[in-house]
Amino acid sequence: MNDLVIMQDRQAVTTSLKVAEVFDKNHRDVMESIRNLTAENSAVEKMFEKSSYINLQKHEQPMYYMNRDGFSLLAMGFTGKKAMGFKLKYIAAFNKMEDLIKNGRRKDNYPIPATYGEALQLAADLQKKVEHDKPKVDYYDSQMRNPGLMTTTVIANDYDMSAREMHQKLHDYGVIYRQGKNWVLYSKYKGQGYAQEEPFPYRNSNNHQGMKPILKWTQKGKKLIYDLFKQHGILPSVEQMELLPG
């Protein structure tokens, strides 16, 4: 039930996917209800924004973002004791997010990031705080199971490049080097919390299963990549779009 309400373009919103999940509805039915609402009154269209997501089968599917008013109209048709409880939780989540946006700071006193670079810096700062507050062994153990660790492929997607291209650039910048078939950090960057090696299961040509280490990046590591690439004039796609004339 986390992240009932998120921030998008400095506005508190939720999604048709999240509404369907929380209220135990079929997403297609929720989408149909939204289409009916927007068809009845043109003013309602401003409360919903059509978007898309990638499903588990890697196919692009439609979805909607909606603000508080849009959610309120949609949720009017949801009845029952459980539905009322979920509505109250949503109202509380909208209130919390709108207060956060209005005041411009999170409860932990970190400012809300306004740019991609600031978002990466915030993530790196929060990671540093976690490392400081927890015993090192416990932190390492939790991070090894942490789905927040990112492969190079995931980060490379932000720059519209392949993992191979990003690995090569990081090698050129003196961050990583080849050790056999694996990429590893140069000693300068080891033990600094930038990345970790995570065991990855595989099967060889004889169908024997084995394990090999794969380099995964922390938020601090992602910020390192961002800073290095920016020094060389390479920006993530989202910042390239911001530089285009409006």
TrEMBL record:
MF annotations from Gene Ontology: DNA binding
InterPro entries: Ant_C, Phage_regulatory_Rha
Pfam hit, one: Phage_pRha
Residues annotated as domain Antirepressor protein C-terminal: 127-231
NCBIfam families recorded: phage_pRha
Descriptive protein name: Phage regulatory protein/antirepressor Ant
Organism: Limosilactobacillus mucosae
